[in-house]
Amino acid sequence: MSKEAVRKGYHCAWQIHYHIVFPVKYRKALLDSEVQEIIKQTASGISERYAIEMEAIGCDKDHIHLLCGAHPKLAPGRIVQVFKSITAREIFRRKPALKKELWGGEFWTDGYYVATVGERGDWDTVEKYVQNHGKPKAQLKQLKMFD
After folding, report:
1. CA-CA distance, 137 to 131, in Å (whole number)?
2. In order of start, what are the domains of the chain with their CATH numbers?
3. Residue 114: pLDDT above 90?
């Protein structure tokens, strides 16, 4: 979903974008390139099955950023729940050794951060931030939130 696109349903029209952040359990640095690829592949299936439009995914070693959109009937907490549960199950299925690293439990921590992203002022800033998250700092310039 582009930032300009207004989506339409049977009884409403919307233009909602969420910036969601959540860390790996115990803030462990487990999001290597292989796990990031599993997450991105799994996100594609989540997008199709749940009508959550994944606009950008950015990973650091110990947390993830999502820029996504969905119908207003789908609460941000539900998006997080769906994303965390399905990606964790797939990560553990494809890399079972990680369960030992996390003492046999959950992949993601219980908490999360969510904010709506407006289409006017801060969209480009947040989109660049999410897309570039986890890249070496030498490649990035500091992004300004406000002029």
Report:
1. 13
2. 16-136 (3.30.70.1290)
3. yes
pTM beyond 0.90: the answer is no
Alpha helix stretches (DSSP H) within the chain = 33-50, 76-94, 97-101, 123-132
Cα 62 versus chain centre, distance: 13
Q: 7: how many CB neighbours lie within 10 A of its CB?
A: 16
pLDDT digits (tens, 9 = 90+) for 17-75: 999 999 999 999 999 999 999 999 999 999 999 999 999 999 999 999 999 999 999 99
**Which residues fall within 8 angstroms of residue 24, CB to CB, at 6 or more apart?**
30, 31, 62, 63, 107, 108, 109
